[in-house]
UniProtKB/TrEMBL annotation, chain A:
Gene3D superfamilies with a match to the protein in the record: P-loop containing nucleotide triphosphate hydrolases
GO molecular function, one term: ATP binding
SUPFAM superfamilies: P-loop containing nucleoside triphosphate hydrolases
CDD domains, per database record: ABC_Mj1267_LivG_branched
Protein name: ABC transporter ATP-binding protein
GO cellular component: plasma membrane
Superkingdom of the source species: Bacteria
Keywords attached to this entry: ATP-binding, Nucleotide-binding, Transport
Domain spans labelled ABC transporter: 6-248
A Pfam family assignment: BCA_ABC_TP_C
Automatic annotation (TrEMBL), chain B:
CDD domains referenced in this protein's UniProt entry, alphabetically: TM_PBP1_LivM_like
Organism of provenance: Alkaliphilus pronyensis
GO CC terms in record: plasma membrane
One example GO MF annotation: branched-chain amino acid transmembrane transporter activity
Location(s), subcellular: Cell membrane
Presence of keyword Transport: no
Keyword Membrane in annotation: yes
TM segment ranges: 12-29, 59-79, 86-106, 112-131, 162-181, 212-234, 246-270, 290-313
Keyword list, A-Z: Cell membrane, Membrane, Transmembrane, Transmembrane helix
Membrane disposition: Multi-pass membrane protein
The protein's name: Branched-chain amino acid ABC transporter permease
């Protein structure tokens, strides 16, 4: 069994009376491509928000590489090697594509609070930025403002920005949300390459072809709680899943 | 010079010509024009300091005049209590730098703890008022509401000479601030303005960066205050007031926010208009109501040129060569 990278213990959060995440205990193993599945509003994004530190849980604990990180800020979690992307595109719209990625790399390489050296003089940052842009196929868009990119390109940029952080674990919240069908294979390709490099990826996704192509493990979340987890084949045969989730006819439908 | 490598040839020539013109003009101009221009230079630096905050960090500071007024008072008090010499001027500069970075640090620690832009605006407003009140009550040192007239070092007494010092001050501060904006730290400030949450998730300690931005802005504002005090040979509580902060806001709005140079253009425009209106006082007393025109100008700018003069200019350039221009904004210059 691989090492556990992230573990949650009875993790819960309530918004008023609504328990968006309810007593979730999962462990995410190093090197396993884990996909989190569940109907709309199941609490998947909220679970990511808890793991990445955007929200504080009402109950429960989160461990990352064996350390209790429940009380740590997002910044500290990023520094420990956790990177996340957002379901709704979240980039620096009025900066260029290049600068968006470059800023990620600058953060990762800890340039520090340099105040009077020209930012363009850091050659290693620029080179690395070019590499990432190539990886996410945005090389020829590098001088465009991020806000001027098409939706699909923005999703790629979003991914490039987390890849640039070279995280040990990558939390990806529907990286293909709103992307056209033709663009999906590219995304699968990028994710496969990232996985091969040894990055642990945790994915939230609705597109079943993508889930099947990539996942080593599935976790099904329904109504804020974990329903089942395990091998993709087994899980998708599980009668409970079929009843609670597939039965609803959601799983094979190409939702956004 | 290494610095100039980044500037393209056309800009370089344009700046060169501008500087030559600015060096000759005072020899041909009236004394009042020379004073007006010195005022434009100094207030341009003040407005640039405000732009660092609002334009680059997205942080609305309604107490920004606190630094400006303090600079003017520090100069005035030291010239009065010690002596009006160059040595004391240097001392005033040093104390202003220390005082403003400390004040900015404290302000930052209070304001940047969380809460939104509005909360920050309210708190800074209160802090500015506290400073103004303190200056008003501490009569033994500041002469309270009457204001503090003071003697200045001889070298600054000549209006023409001081014009050049003000111009040099503007040039030096522009170079420094431009370098700051083009530094890795400056880049992060722009990222924070665009999307603070995302900057956090890249691992940037955004409060620390904002604190640095506030300190740079505070020190710059303070230094422009020292110069402004010397220009007027006078400091009063108006220099610490919200009105003074709003002046910076108007100047950056007119010129173009987040452009640095916009502050220079804005300062030239706003001060010239203000001066012109004051001249019309004798025609009709309504022209004394600067605030009225201030408000009107604000509305016009917000409605018709939300990105200011520099924004208009960039747009014009963009229409001409659409592609190349997408970098103009991003460079922030
Ligand atoms: N900050 C918040 N405040 C209040 N309610 C919230 C908040 N965030 C999420 N919720 C609620 O929690 C529930 C779970 O939302 P979440 O976004 O986690 O679902 P999801 O599984 O990611 O759905 P989708 O597949 O549509 O992205 C929803 O009912 C949502 O309205
Ligand atoms: Mg979601």
């Amino acid at each position: 069994m691989a090492d556990t990278l992230i573990q949650t213990e009875n993790l819960s959060i309530s918004f008023g009376a609504h328990k968006a995440v309810n007593n979730v205990s999962i462990s995410l193993e190093k090197g396993l491509f884990t996909t989190i599945l569940g109907p709309n509003g199941a609490g998947k994004t909220t679970l990511f928000n808890l793991i990445s530190g955007l929200l504080k849980p009402t109950e429960g604990k989160i461990y990352f590489k064996g350390t209790d990180i429940t009380g740590l800020s997002p910044i500290e979690r990023v520094k420990m090697g956790m990177g996340r992307s957002f379901q709704l595109t979240n980039v620096f719209s009025r900066l260029t594509t290049f600068e968006n990625v470059r800023l990620s790399i600058q953060a990762h390489q800890e340039v520090g609070y340099k105040m009077f050296t020209d930012y363009r003089k850091f050659k290693s940052l620029n080179d690395k930025t070019h590499e990432i842009l190539e990886e996410v196929l945005l090389k020829d868009k590098k001088d465009f403002l991020a806000g001027e990119l098409s939706h699909g390109e923005q999703r790629k940029l979003e991914l490039g920005m987390v890849l640039a952080l070279q995280p040990e674990v990558l939390l990806l919240d529907e990286p293909t949300a709103g992307m056209s069908i033709e663009e999906v294979p590219t995304m699968i390709d990028i994710l496969n390459k990232t996985k091969e490099k040894g990055t642990t990826i945790i994915l939230i996704e609705h597109k079943m072809d993508m889930v099947k192509a990539l996942s080593d493990k599935l976790i099904i979340i329904v109504n804020g709680a974990k329903l089942v987890e395990g091998d993709p084949e087994e899980v998708s045969q599980n009668p409970e899943v079929l009843k609670a989730y597939l039965g609803g006819g959601v799983l094979n439908e190409p939702t956004t | 010079m290494k610095l100039l490598k980044n500037i393209d040839k056309k800009t370089f020539i344009a700046i060169g010509v501008l500087l030559v013109v600015l060096s000759i003009v005072p020899h041909l101009a009236k004394l009042s024009t020379i004073t007006l221009m010195s005022r434009i230079f100094i207030l341009a630096v003040y407005a640039m300091s405000y732009d660092i905050l609002r334009g680059y960090t997205g942080f609305i500071n309604l107490g920004h005049a606190l630094f400006f007024g303090s600079g003017a008072y520090i100069g005035g008090i030291l010239f009065t209590k010690i002596d009006n010499t160059m040595g004391v001027f240097v001392l005033a500069v040093i104390i202003t730098v220390i005082y403003c970075s400390l004040a900015a640090y404290i302000m930052g620690k209070i304001v940047l703890r969380g809460g939104g832009v509005i909360a920050a605006a309210m708190i800074t407003l209160a802090l500015g008022e506290i400073a103004r009140n303190t200056a008003e009550r501490w009569r033994s040192v500041t002469m309270g509401a009457d204001g503090l007239p003071f003697k200045i070092p001889d070298i600054f007494r000549d209006r023409l000479g001081f014009y050049y010092y003000a111009l040099i001050f503007l040039i030096i501060m522009t170079i420094i601030l431009r370098q700051f904006i083009l530094s890795p730290t400056g880049r992060v400030l722009m990222a924070i303005r665009e999307n603070e949450q995302r900057a956090t998730f890249l691992g940037y300690n955004t409060s620390k960066y904002k604190l640095i931005g506030l300190q740079v802005a505070g020190i710059t504002s303070g230094l422009s205050g020292v110069m402004f005090g010397i220009l007027n040979r006078f400091a009063n509580t108006d220099l610490l007031s919200v009105q003074q902060t709003l002046n910076a806001l108007l100047i950056t709005l007119v010129g173009g926010t987040g452009t640095l140079y916009g502050a220079i253009v804005g300062s030239a425009f706003v001060n010239t208009v203000q001066n012109y209106l004051l001249d019309l006082r004798s025609v009709h007393p309504i022209f004394e109501r600067w605030l009225l025109f201030f408000g009107a100008m604000y509305v016009v700018v917000v409605l018709f040129m939300p990105e200011g003069f520099v924004g208009l200019w960039n747009k014009y350039l963009k229409d001409r060569r659409t592609k190349k221009n997408s970098r103009v904004f991003e460079k922030g210059l």
